[in-house]
Design goal:
Layout: E1 3-8, H1 15-28, E2 32-38, H2 52-62, E3 66-70, H3 72-75, H4 79-92, E4 98-103, H5 108-120, H6 123-134, H7 139-153, H8 167-182, E5 187-192, H9 210-219, H10 232-243, H11 255-263, H12 267-270, H13 280-287, H14 294-301, H15 308-320, H16 324-333, E6 338-344, H17 348-357, E7 362-363, H18 366-372, H19 375-391, H20 405-408, E8 412-414
Parallel strand pairs: 1-2, 1-4, 2-3, 4-5, 6-7, 6-8
Antiparallel strand pairs: 3-6
Helix pairs in contact: 2-10, 4-8, 5-8, 6-7
Length: 415
């Protein structure tokens, strides 16, 4: 039995995702597809447009057989932690045979070569990365410059450091590095991204980036205009959810809550928050009074060293009270469970096999799992539960500020 794994956010599920799903199953010659999907807060530090169960339902309706949640403690992180959390879950299922990811490169070999270099990190490369970091560059740029110098010094002409300039290539390299570190039998595959780029705001024929779709929805409620860039099943679910007032959710919905958190925060406490270094807390607090919106706050804080994405993540960590200590502990221990968000009728066979083969506890209901779980499992689950409780506050309607949804919402079964 061949099962292809996908690492996703589906924010929201669009034609590009459908293309990737179809191509992944074709390349892997797979009968089944399992997606590991971020929950309510995503890799770039943003809240999801729609809640995790809705996005999982979109995926199942489009042909994914099983959607698993990537815990918050990994889903909101930079590339290495995000990728390793997701790959560890796919590896832990015991049934995934292939991993297929999108990349700008469209070729697995150069990505694998760089992944091996970063995994082994020869002393010379390590020293070059540290040198670039000391010069003030953020890690991705430091790695790119260091890699370029390393390849030049060692006369490696068949690898281009520019491959690190693309976000999906970077994630792909991290997926490969994690597979190698785990000595996983999962075979990696890649599909070249087509048409709309990761940050592309424009619609190009039947393809649009998730960023372009979200920005359209934040300014335009003519949802039918999306019929050419989203599967009909996704569009139908999107309409249903928006008509009920469950989205679209953006950072602006949380701005008053964030202001409260920052205005009442002890600067000393802020230094314990993940990714706050070099006095960043002072910069955030000093510029707080000048911002009238989330966007203006980030624009004021942002510098060449502190990118938009890093600021978003830091503000998200403040909202979630995610500390450096917890992040280091979770990175060391890895995922502690496999949580099911949605399953197709066909996908129930996968669950049956996972109950026998999975290396991690399988969670379909949070309450009994929480009651019986280890202290570490509960600590990790607490962040998922908290992220849901905070996320509902983004609906802007007190009647929808539901607490404890994770305890009452089981896996969505799509027939």
């Amino acid at each position: 039995m061949r099962v292809v794994g996908l690492v996703t956010e589906y924010n929201p599920f669009h034609n590009g995702h459908l293309f990737h799903l179809t191509k992944a199953k074709e390349l892997a010659e797979a009968e089944y597809a399992i997606a590991v999907m971020s929950g309510h807060f995503l890799q770039r530090g943003e809240p999801a447009l729609l809640d995790k169960w809705t996005r999982a339902r979109m995926a199942i309706a489009a042909g994914v057989d099983l959607v698993l949640e990537l815990p918050y403690v990994f889903s909101s992180r930079s590339a290495n932690a995000f990728a390793c959390g997701a790959v560890s879950i796919l590896h832990g299922t015991g049934i995934v045979t292939h991993l297929c990811f999108g990349s700008e490169a469209g070729n697995i070999e150069p990505l694998a070569q760089i992944a091996r270099l970063f995994l082994q990190e020869p002393p010379e490369l390590s020293a070059l990365i540290k040198k670039q970091l000391k010069s003030g560059l953020i890690l991705p740029l430091a790695q790119t410059k260091a890699l370029a110098e390393y390849l030049h010094r060692n006369d490696v002409v068949d690898l281009k450091p520019e491959i690190l300039n693309n976000p999906n290539n970077i994630l792909g390299i991290e997926y490969l590095r994690c597979l190698m570190a785990l000595n996983s039998p999962i075979k990696p595959l890649t599909v070249q991204r087509i048409a709309a780029g990761y940050h592309d705001r424009k619609f190009r024929g039947s393809f649009a980036s998730a960023t372009g779709i979200r920005e359209f929805l934040f300014t335009n409620r003519d949802i039918d205009s999306l019929k050419d860039v989203m599967p009909s099943t996704s569009l139908k679910i999107l309409k249903e959810e928006l008509s009920k007032g469950y989205g679209p959710v953006s950072w602006e919905n949380f701005f008053p809550i964030l202001l409260y958190c920052l205005r009442t925060a002890d600067p000393a406490w802020l230094t314990n928050i993940l990714d706050i270094t070099e006095g960043l807390e002072n910069r955030v607090l000093s510029l707080l009074g000048e911002a009238a919106s989330f966007r203006s706050l980030v624009e004021k804080i942002k510098t060449k060293r502190y990118t938009w994405t890093r600021i978003q993540r830091v503000l998200n960590y403040i909202l979630m009270e995610y500390t450096k200590e917890d992040a280091a502990y979770f990175d060391e221990k890895g995922p502690q469970y496999i949580r099911v968000l949605a399953v197709s009728e066909k996908g129930r066979l996968l669950l049956a096999k996972m109950r026998k083969k999975a290396a991690l506890p399988l969670i379909t209901r949070v309450a009994p799992a929480y009651k019986k779980g280890t202290a570490l499992m509960k600590r990790m689950l607490d962040y998922d539960i908290k992220s849901s409780d905070i996320y509902t506050l983004g609906y802007g309607n007190a009647a929808k500020f539901v607490k404890g949804r994770d305890f009452v919402t089981g896996p969505i079964v799509v027939k």
